[in-house]
Amino acid sequence: MTTRWTGRCDSKGFRVLAAGLGLVLVGMGVALLVAFRGGGAPSWVGWLLVVVAVVLFLSGWWLSSVEVRVEDDAFVIGFGPFHRPRRVIPLSEIREVAAGQVDPMEWGGWGYRWIPWQNASAAVIRKGPGIMLKLEPDKKFAVTVDDAQAGALALGHALEDAKRR
I need a labelling partner for 5 at 20 to 30 A (CA). Which of 44, 74, 112, 150 fits? Predict the structure, then answer.
């Protein structure tokens, strides 16, 4: 299996937002733990806020980057530093490919989005260039990535080569 093209997309803003919200929730959790200490009030609320803050920070950090690969037989999207979780779309499922602008508000926000009533999903890390796919049967997928034109071109060539085989 040969990789024909690799692209990345990072969002520092996503990381900063996740860190900021995480710090605010940790602060609130610690404040509740200190305020309720020894007063007989339940301390689990403070601990819950701390746990939520850690989960929010880690998932925000993890989903703030994406790597996209065009391979001989698939289009692969991986999240975070270890490129996991991954979404693998076989070339046989791709009908059309195009590069264009991806607006998070059209996809319901940032992150991995699923819009069941439109039969669509997307990996939206930031507003900007991305690769848009029409899949079998009547599904859509989009991913934001730097140098989306080159990625769409490489994917188009991979699709043509796959049809010839």
Answer: 112
* pTM across the whole model: 0.80
What is the C-alpha to C-alpha distance for residues 68 and 83, in angstroms, rounded to an integer? 9
Contact 27, 46 (CB under 8 A): no
Strand partners, 68: 7, 77
Measured CA distances, 47 to 22, 28, 30, 39, 42 (Å): 13, 10, 8, 16, 10
**pLDDT digit string (tens) for the chain, length 165 residues:** 688 999 999 888 878 888 888 889 888 888 888 887 767 667 788 888 888 888 888 888 888 899 999 999 999 999 888 888 889 999 999 999 999 999 999 998 888 889 999 999 999 989 999 999 999 889 999 999 999 999 999 999 999 998 887
User: Cis omega before residue 85 (within 30°)?
Assistant: yes
Measured from the Cβ of residue 129, the count of other Cβ atoms closer than 10 Å reads 19
